[in-house]
Amino acid sequence: MKLSTQMYSYVLTCALTGLATVPATAEPIVIKLSHVVAVNTPKGQGAERFKKLAEERTQGRVKIEVYPNSQLFKDKEDIEAMQLGSVQMLIETTSKFGPVGAKEFEVFDLPFITPDRDSFLRVADGPIGKKMLQSLEKYGIKGLAFWDAGFRVMSANRPLHRLADYKGLKMRINSSRVIDAQMRALGAIPQTLAFSEVYQGLQTGVVDGQENVMSNLWVNKFFEVQKHISITHHSHLAYAVIANKKFWDGLPDDIRTLLEGAVRDSTTYANQLGAEEEIDSIEKIKASGRSTIYVPSKAEIDELKKATSPLYQMMEGRLGRDNIAAVVKAAGGGVP
Ligand code: LMR
After folding, report:
1. Which fold has domain 27-331?
2. Does the beta carbon of 36 sit less than 6 angstroms from any atom of ligand 1?
3. I want to staple 316 with a disulfide (CB 3.0 to 4.6 A). Which of 8, 33, 300, 321 is the partner?
């Protein structure tokens, strides 16, 4: 065999330095990862951590391109884009899975179903969560992990203390039918808007209020256009790290294993950051003086619980009776 001068010198270098005989020009596997929030949120930072770990551990055989802030796709479009293969991975709010068909994911939106962080993680990281992630395969989606974005709070331009305060408010929601029913049970008028449109929607009065985690209120400056925030902690905002199943299954085994490890470690990181940022964002918003932060009394929370309790039965058809019962049992939450 006659080698070109260039190839000859490459083989010689490999032999002398003990390098693997993979040509240095081998193209890395590119993974486009899209999400809708800012880089400096727990999700944004978790995505960056995943990129770092994945690239380091695969020694450059994989390149992760992170697209934050709905740069490529907005809510809903992004799941379709991933199913079609335009992006390979997403970190997506589970309250947006309904339109794909995965309605059971809205179980996390049932008001007060996960009373604290541990109860959420018991469900998400336990057998129920595993089964839910597996159930995505029929939609061409590989479910890799749940992330805990923290508790949702309510905000508006009027104080939200009593149930009556929600009456008639146009509240921006994710596409979840459970959240839609929740807002109606509170006497509000739900309106689905993509995340990228929320700030402007609040500013121009398209909607009066919204529910979200504190870090999104802070980083995306919703507090500038919302005078009152009520720490209702009525549900957890859950994320799922998901991939195009065909793409994921087609990865070389060793690469897939390394990426799964990177997902695991970035999950731990993002969950911890989520918990820290929740507290931090409250402090920063308080210090800004732009919004009041109100902690409802037990009696006020009980009023919200009572108003929303019929949802547990109303949503049996959508979420599955057994599914709701299993989550209630594992989480130790639910409403009276
Ligand atoms: C929202 O749409 O409000 C959230 O799901 C955004 C996010 O991903 O945290």
Report:
1. D-Maltodextrin-Binding Protein; domain 2 (3.40.190)
2. yes
3. 321
